[in-house]
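Sharing a chain and its predicted structure for anyone who wants a worked example. Both blocks are below, sequence first, tokens second.
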Amino acid sequence: MGASADEIDRQIASTRNHLDANLDVLESRAILGAKRAGVIAAAGLAAGLAIAGVAFLVYRRVRRPPRAREARPPRSESIARKLAPAIVSSAVSAAMAQAFRRRARPQA
């Protein structure tokens, strides 16, 4: 007849073991490949960011006028700009308070 059932079971087990060994090798290769691809992608990203940073600095250096030619308001003008709203609001509130006091006084 043909092969016995025990012999067929041994061949099946041997084939399974062989396939498992091959799968283990393929999985380890895939893991190493993924790690390698990750390292390459990270290096590429870092290089791209570095190049973009340098390009931005060069662009800014070329397009931006030198500091000596920039028009800056004098210090007194910038201080006045900061203080003006406070002074105006204080004056308006004082005038309003005075006006309400005059109105509230009884007339003789």
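Comments welcome. DSSP finds two helices and no strands in the chain.
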